[in-house]
Design brief:
This protein is mainly α. The protein has one domain. It is 68% helix and 0% strand. The radius of gyration is 17 Å and the shape is globular. The N and C termini lie far apart (44 Å).
């Protein structure tokens, strides 16, 4: 049992540390969307929500820029499809959407 647990922990540790940058960035995007939705649900104005997540600009990850953050704030606050969106399930869905979009960039081997 201990060997199995050790092997499992090694696999999980390796898998997490070897995650492609797109996966890490997508997880960060999901976190950003969840934080913006939480700010909206707490009654914060859109500009305050933007300021709240602007620290992500220092992350250095490709795709996390001012245009992305402003677009995310506008989507969460003003798009009727996202009026009720929020919470961990929303975060997970937005992360999965990002990962799926990244996978669509792959091309078959020639």
């Amino acid at each position: 049992m201990n060997r199995f647990f050790l092997a499992l922990m090694m696999f999980v540790t390796f898998s997490v540390s070897a995650a492609p940058i797109d996966t890490v960035t997508c997880r960060m995007e999901g976190e950003i969307f969840e934080n913006i939705a939480r700010a909206r649900d707490r009654g914060m104005a859109p500009d305050a929500a933007y300021k709240n997540v602007s620290g992500y600009l220092r992350s250095g990850y490709e795709g996390i820029n001012e245009a992305f953050l402003k677009g995310a704030v506008n989507m969460i606050y003003f798009d009727p499809e996202f009026a009720q969106a929020g919470g961990p399930l929303f975060r997970r869905r937005m992360t999965e959407r990002c990962i799926e979009n990244a996978r669509q960039k792959f091309q078959p081997l020639q």
